[in-house]
Amino acid sequence: MGQSSSKYVHSSNDYELVIKCSKELEYILENEFGATGRGLHEKISSANAPFSAELIKQMRYLATIRNKLIHERGFDAIPDRANFIMKFEKSAQELESIVKSRQGHGNTNCCIMNNWVATDDITPVLYRNTPSASTTVSAGELSLHNVLKNFQQAQVPTLFYSGWFDATARSALQGYCNLPNKSKVIIGPWNHGGLQFFDIDQNKSQITEFDHFTPVLEFLHHHFESNSQTTPCEQEPLVASDNALYKGVEYFMLGENRWHHSDIWPAYFNRQSWYLSMETSGTPMLTNTLSHVCGGQVTISVNGQKSIGGNSRWHATIRIRDPIMYTHWEECHHITFTSMPVDAPLKIAGTPVVTLYLSSSDTDADLFVYLVAVAPKTK
């Protein structure tokens, strides 16, 4: 940075004050932000930095006073000397703050570059016991379950932030169940990165306008501030609750399109069981009455992946800006077990658990099971 601004405050001559202050800002803009040009106005415009509108306004004011004092006849004194000095000192301090933050960012990048990045080293296979190409470390050894007991003993406050269309939703809830005392979960109706809000009733998505930053800051504020119990909150929680800002599960109910809060997960203990059944016609069915189950079997020939098309939850983890859309449910010809229409609206809040017994001609197969709400078909 250049010289300290405090020495200019007591300059007796307005001309001397304006010139020295302008030179100070020009020096900073040139050396720290790569600015070019003849005067302060041009250097402000050419600086390589996303300055705030208020900072630009302050510096433009200073540059205008400088130009008038030098070039305009009859303009020989600063209209408001105290205001000029205040704007200069504020501008210089803000520029210095930006420079320091940039230096910190650079140091962080250097640290990251020197770290071992596991995703670059582990070979892209599905087996958790497969070692990497260059070390003896396997994907399973990198799993957090290896240090779970240490986390539980340390009582580390943890915020799990995910979405129903993010690949981390189940892991977030599982993490909370393992660390329930000081942890919080936020699960919204969005994909990875929280960009796309998906409406399951209309099967379409739109860019979300949700404020993702404030809930995270409130959680950190509570756990980092020593007097957090008495510090007023900056915002209301998503759901009215005494501890919702820093504890529990805040989840968005799809279809109902409302936020809910629960101190436990699953949020409800009303467990509903459904059973796979083969009707006499050979049609796979779901029934909630065990005595109605009919035995049988169904066979499917798998020739590679059967994609459901569009931009599914799994694709949306990578293609975060593409609209979420499921386009080929019917064309996939999956094995589908369908229940009778429900008699009343049914809310499902929890993690579906499926127990299957199957035989496969393949030595290793991936099986995906979807729980899908089917809209009533009309003529």
From TrEMBL:
Which domain of life, per UniProt? Eukaryota
Instruction: Name the chain's protein.
Output: Xaa-Pro dipeptidyl-peptidase C-terminal domain-containing protein
This protein's UniProt keywords: Hydrolase
Where the record annotates domain Xaa-Pro dipeptidyl-peptidase-like, the positions are 145-193
For whether the record's keyword set contains tRNA-binding, the answer is no
Q: Which organism is it from?
A: Thraustotheca clavata
Q: Which GO terms describe its molecular function?
A: dipeptidyl-peptidase activity
Task: List, alphabetically, the Pfam families matched.
Answer: Peptidase_S15, PepX_C
List each copy of the Xaa-Pro dipeptidyl-peptidase C-terminal domain by range: 247-377
